[in-house]
Amino acid sequence: ALKGPLIYTIVLLIGTLIWFRGSPIGVVGITQMAAGDGFADIVGRRYGKKKWAFAPDKSIAGTAGFVCAATVVTTALLMLFSATGNISPALEFSEVLQKVLLISVFCGLVELIPVWDDNVSVPLAGALAAKYLLDI
């Protein structure tokens, strides 16, 4: 309880306080961790028979689940916040979807690296990628 869940909660709190509603960077960082990492665990445990050779505790199915969930949830939240005026300027769906898919793939790969706790590395990678790819 003092490792993953505590770190997750601290990162979620910091991300929410600093940027969540007004910045796509915060939305991306938090949703990549929350939706992507959370769904990767569920899918990986259920369907994750085939593991990555370089990350034997992670499954290919889990990574695919990460990318799918992170892309859908991040895109949906960005479009919602754009439509309600919380993110300015207004975002174009097709452009956002393409960029978020790329960010999700990047974060899915970062999640496979066992150097840092993924509750820290994934939102940082997502926020950094959003800063450069969404250029808002």
Q: How is the secondary structure organized here?
A:
Layout: H1 4-18, H2 24-47, H3 60-83, H4 93-112, H5 118-133
Briefly summarize what is shown.
The chain has 136 residues and is mainly α.
Task: Please characterize this protein's 3D structure.
The protein is built from five helices and no strands. α2 (24-47) crosses α5. The protein has 136 residues and is mainly α. The longest helix is centred in the N-terminal third of the chain and has 24 residues, at 24-47. The chain is globular.
Quickly give the structural class. mainly alpha
Helix content estimate: over 70%
Radius of gyration: 14 Å
Low-confidence stretches: none
Number of helices: 5
Q: Which whole number gives the mean pLDDT?
A: 88
Termini gap: 37 Å
Note the main sheet. none
Topology, number of strands: 0
User: What global shape is seen?
Assistant: globular
Strand content: under 5%
Task: Give the helices and strands as they follow along the chain.
Answer: HHHHH
